[in-house]
Specification:
The chain is mainly beta. It has helices spanning about 5-25, 70; strands spanning about 30-40, 55, 75-85, 95-105, 110-120, 125-135, 140-150, 155-165, 170-180. It comes from Melia azedarach.
Length: about 180
């Protein structure tokens, strides 16, 4: 028995839908995985020679030298931090983490980040751009990779942040596991 053309077109369309929806359920694997550490040394009024970040905006009840009370709510910090391949601050940097974070909640430590990893090494050239909420009290936090340049042209993916170390309110180190799902 032969199918008429309408039935054949409908059958092919349904087959296409089935194949496309079943392949969409597959877990995608990253096209590139990277791990970096960035080291943030906040200016505290006494460490200008090695500070890599500074408070540039603060609420009225605070100042621009010491982080505000109440979970640092309202502080805006700009940074230019070294990026290393291991967790040693004194390792040779492979780039810079440049951007800002805003402490955006009174009740708990949480921030919003917007920054780039800027590379100019023999292994990587260009930048990876990140943005997203950073609930600092969580062991791991995911933020979006929203683009890039050079070796990371139009990259998209996820970066998992982990506070690897901290020393009071002057130094912290973040381990950044980057998984790119769009690589050009």
């Amino acid at each position: 028995m032969l199918m008429d053309s309408k039935t054949l077109i409908l059958a092919l369309f349904l087959l296409f839908l089935f194949v496309s929806t079943s392949s969409a359920r597959k877990i995608r694997k990253p096209c590139k995985s990277l791990v970096f550490y960035f080291h943030d040394i906040i200016y505290n009024g006494k460490n200008s020679h090695n500070a890599t970040s500074a408070i540039v905006g603060a609420p009225a009840w605070s100042n621009k030298t010491i982080l505000a009370g109440q979970s640092h709510f309202g502080d805006l910090v700009v940074f230019d931090d070294p990026i290393t391949l291991d967790n040693n601050l004194h390792s040779t940097p492979v780039g810079r983490a440049q951007g800002f974070y805003i402490y955006d909640k009174k009740e708990i430590f949480t921030a919003w980040l917007g920054f780039s990893f800027v590379f100019n090494s023999t292994e990587h050239k260009g930048s990876i751009n990140f943005a997203g909420a950073d609930p600092l009290m969580n062991k791991t936090r995911d933020i979006s990779v929203i683009g890039g340049t050079g070796d990371f042209f139009m990259a998209r993916g996820i970066a998992t942040l982990m506070t690897d170390s901290f020393e009071g309110e002057v130094y912290f180190r973040l381990r950044t596991d980057i998984k790119l799902y769009e690589c050009w």
